[in-house]
Amino acid sequence: MLPHKPRRVLITGVSNPLGAEVARRLAPQVPHLFGCDVDDPLSALEEMDFVHADTRLSVIGKLVRQLRIDTVVHLAVMVDSSHDYRSIHETDVIGTMNVLVGCAAPSSPVRRLVVKSSQAVYGAGPNDPSFFSEEMVNWEKPASGITRDLLETEQLVSEFALRTDTCGVTVLRLGFRVSEDTSLARYLCLPVVPVFTGFDPRLQLLHEDDAAEAIVRATVGDHPGAFNVAGDGVVLLSQAIDIMGGRAAPILPPYGRWFSRFGLKLLARVDLPAYLADVIAFGSVMDCSRLVSEFAWKPAYSSRQTMDALALGKDMEQIEAPSPPQEYELQVYLQQRRRRALIPIRGGVARKAGGAD
Length: 357
Description:
seven-stranded parallel sheet, Rossmann fold, alpha/beta
């Protein structure tokens, strides 16, 4: 398959902060950028055409064909979300299935697909290896919740890649992120942090800036396959708590993590997903050497620096705050006016709006 240069790129899940940042970085690099989501984006990006579309509906395939999309960046995969489990499952599994059907249709022009996954696909347990390499995904391992959905999602993508030799497929297993809106960050920011008695797991983290950069590089580059993406090194849970100025309280029993999660939600008002409860008990670390070798790049922030950035509130790339509704509508209006700078006149000739005859 000849190298593919993306020209018409569609980003799903563009309304979340990561999707918005990926769109902002891709805009200067591709001629035509489109975004879709069920909600409005954080702000109107002049270089991007936005479409209200839900990946859980089969209309996504029609969108891909009508817009003649050659590259799909599928970020509408929920990992750490406040939505109910049914919505998460439908978005992750059914949504990905619809995207794949749209990319696989005989009339589909798609030649590259980038899919967001997560370190959570490996799960976390007492018998885990020191490092997870990309080949260590256990498709037969009993799993529940997000881990099960990610396994099912990645299996669908893997089968698509085997069937569709005209489309290069990249899967990015992003490490755990600790921006302020993540469950892990809210947990670590508690003044008194309940931890499992007798456990001090290793945490491997990924800065938001590096997550966006990895997705952009996968989009404009040619890197088929699955890649672990996380910062160098690890921090112990006790170190992370110290960095945030909190105090560890070993009050959670090492058994019955469902009960412990319920206690955290009731007492500390932190709703910790099941996979994160396993992570703060057993830890999870990935081998990212394949990323470094294939991309000739590695995340700029180590796991320790990612924690420091959270503590200091000095993220290098600040995600733009959502615009007030009136401001967003104004941005859209001005964007549309700029795009109508050339208007048709009789005879099929065009002139600039407001210009001389």
